[in-house]
Amino acid sequence: MRSKVPPAWARAALAMFGVGWGANQFSPMLRVYREQNGLSEAALTAMFGMYALGLIPALLVAGPYSDRRGRRTVIRPVVLLSAAATLVLMAGGTRPELLYGGRFLAGVASGAAFSAGSAWVKELSAQAPAGAGARRAAVFLSAGFGGGPLVSGMAGQWLPLPRITPYLPHLLIMAVVTPLAWWLPDPAAERDPAPWRAPRAARRKRFLLGVAVWAPWVFGTATAAFATLTALAAPHTHGLGIAFTGAVTALTLGTGIAVQPMTRRLAARGGTARAAVVGLLLATLGFVVAAGAAATGWVAAVPAAAVLLGASYGMLLVTGLREVELLADEGELAAFVAIFYMLIYIGFGAPYLFTVSAGSSGYPRCLLAAGLVTLLTVFVMRPALRDAPARAAAPAEETPPVRR
What we know:
The protein is mostly helical. The protein contains 15 helices and no strands. The radius of gyration is 20 Å and the shape is globular.
């Protein structure tokens, strides 16, 4: 009996899952390199920064390029690059200078995959209900983001060769998803390439005030949970800091997946404005609980904060992607998605800002201040998203037919 091949959209989404896994599997490994290689905090922070150094240019280039030349031309080399980045990270276990290069390559792969891949999933979901493409992209991306650190954290904590073993699952995943995505139909390639231009929708008031003002909190909330709080709790985890970091990261991003049905219902009843407001309010509550955890050192409060901040992450990610889908002009979807991802990745700087500010104010006050900012953001963005965009009523709008 022949095995059933996943639908086209799922194969594209699995490619995003694999690249997302490779992007975030590094998080718990920071403690491994600190303990086994004696790397300083400055070196580890620089390695994290190399990821963004590769990601941002890739977002700028790959999204618009895939709008003009098709998604396959971007995703094919990207899935290979993601696996290559992991091989370099494995070699970096004994040669730490290679870790910088591995993180840079992982950033390039991520930037290209997230912009072109999100647009591809949306186009291959043209026959599905409105908003299905955004939800599917967010779910598979979040699953990869959460699964990578969970598995690498457990492997790094308890399995032999902790600088090698945690990376093996990603290589296996890429060996499976690469052939699945290789020959996918490519609706974007059927269009005549248009001259590149900056997406006009990015200059609209609805995007600037209704999405861009809160976009950095998508990852700002998530990283506060799995970077800032896990670091503060590490001295109280009885030597299980690597596994604890991986578990909290998975809990944060897994909650982001679990809230997808709620996000869909909220958007159906009150538009994307209601979903965005609830996401920001969850962020406010999550930062309050996080401040309590920082003030008391109570480890049990960290998972509670992670659930709230993860729910905020999931709601805001799906809401933002849905708005981008609705606002993007013909032939500009991936370029517009790239702009949204650049904005949300600003949130990866939140742990650094908390660390710098905590020197004078302390972590509890910094986290409470973040909660206040998310609360005030509600009053800025809500008027801009109050009215539904004109294209919201046309879910299967402009995607051209696919030639097989």
